[in-house]
Design brief:
13 helices; 5-stranded antiparallel beta sheet; 417 residues; 15 strands
């Protein structure tokens, strides 16, 4: 059994016989369970420090410290640890106090063998839920880090209009202070009434259809009114219902006259959302890199798209996935090191996206004979770089750079799993 599947339970009950009985029944019922029993509630905190405990099960009526007091002490140090009150003293008053103190579950001892099956299920469900929430929190933190590297405005909001998350680009455009808690903001705090009805109607379409929508919105920003292309997608809760809306919004005011470029941009966003679903299912860096390069080659019709990952000693970038057209252009795919003084290594070392509109004028190109006319290099954190090139100079627009940065951000997130 994997160590991540094991569930360590601290059972505190001043009656040693109850502790031994509970251990003798629960451990055989669940192979994953490992029980630590303690009769003195004053020792519980010490045991929590010594062991990686996944769930605390405690009696209520005990000498020195009752179960509610123990619960309060645990909550002072750990607000997420599942705590189950397993007690003979099953009064409404005790249950109410336990709930107020942050108990996870409450189960009354009944003296029946069946109650231990119920207790085992309650423990398993509580720990599974806590672990899922912990994984979600970790993924969200990684996602937030990626968001802050993007120049595209990204937000997460409830269907009611209350905001849950904004990246820095979104805050800047809407004039929201970096220190402001966005969960205190609603649409009414940010936009004029004549705009809100349309925004919330679009939100409602997402909730009711449970589908992504794309809309052009006139948005008042710190730089004046902008026409913004916003893609809104449903975010689902544990019960399968839509609990939030994720929006990705880009200023398209200057690009309205450039229909062909805009069409490519829209296609790239759609492909990104499609590829992102597949990326989350990949199991190796190689597979994720191949998905990205294939998608970029399709959308941008680029002459080169490829991913280079760092070696274990962090002293070289090795090609791991190169598009078909890229392999035709470069029969021998280069490997980048600090000694090369290449643009790719420089972008990786400086962790800074580079767009070279005319490669022929740049003295740091890897080869003077390179067929590449323009190139975008996106660092993938410490994992490596994403490289997109065209044989034509000035082949990429500002929008292209933004979208490719989004692709790189998504790949960075997946590589960091």
């Amino acid at each position: 059994m994997a160590s991540s599947d094991r569930i360590t339970i601290l059972h505190v009950d001043d009656d040693r016989r109850i502790g031994e009985l509970t251990q003798s029944i629960l451990e055989p019922k669940r192979e994953a369970f490992e029980l630590i029993t303690e009769t003195d509630p004053r020792e519980a905190e010490h045991l929590l420090n010594e062991h990686d405990v996944d769930c605390l099960v405690t009696d209520y009526d005990m000498p020195h410290i009752n179960g509610i007091e123990l619960l309060k002490r645990v909550r002072d140090r750990d607000s997420s640890l599942p705590v189950i009150l397993f007690t003979n003293k099953g009064t409404e008053e005790v249950a109410s106090r336990a709930i107020s103190a942050g108990v996870t579950d409450y189960l009354q001892k009944e003296g029946s063998p069946d109650q231990y099956e119920v207790l085992a299920n309650r423990i398993k469900n509580a720990v599974d839920k806590q672990r899922q929430e912990q994984r979600a929190t970790t993924l969200r933190r990684r996602f937030e880090v990626v968001l802050e590297t993007m120049d595209t405005a990204v937000f997460l909001k409830e269907p009611t209009g209350r905001y849950l998350l904004m990246n820095d680009a979104c805050r800047e455009r809407l004039g929201v202070n970096p220190e402001q808690d966005v969960t205190e903001l609603t649409d009414e705090d940010l936009f004029p009434p004549e705009r809100i009805d349309q925004y919330q109607a679009d939100d409602q379409r997402v909730v009711e259809s449970e589908r992504r929508i794309e809309t052009e919105e006139i948005v008042p920003t710190t730089a004046g009114e902008q026409t913004r292309l916003t893609r809104k997608s449903p975010v689902y809760g544990q019960d399968g219902s839509v609990t939030a809306i994720c929006g990705v919004s880009t200023n398209i005011t200057p690009q309205k006259r450039r229909a062909q470029k805009l069409k490519r941009y829209n296609t790239a966003l759609k492909e990104l959302l499609s590829v992102s679903q597949m990326l989350m299912q990949t199991t190796t860096p190689e597979e994720a890199a191949q998905r990205i390069t294939a998608g970029i080659e399709t959308v941008f019709e680029s002459d080169l798209s490829g991913v280079w990952l760092t070696t274990d000693d962090m002293n070289a970038l090795e090609p791991i996935a190169i598009s078909k057209r890229g392999q035709e252009l470069f029969p021998e795919i280069p490997r980048y090191t600090p000694d090369d003084q290449s643009l790719s290594w420089e972008a990786y070392q400086q962790q800074e996206l580079k767009y070279i509109s005319d490669m022929s004028t740049h003295d740091q190109r890897a080869s003077e004979e390179t067929p590449i006319g323009s190139e975008i290099i996106v660092p993938l954190g410490q994992h490596g770089i994403l490289n997109i090139g065209s044989t034509e100079p000035d082949a990429f627009t500002e929008q292209d750079v933004e979208v490719i940065e989004l692709w790189g951000g998504m790949l960075t997130l997946v590589l960091g799993r």
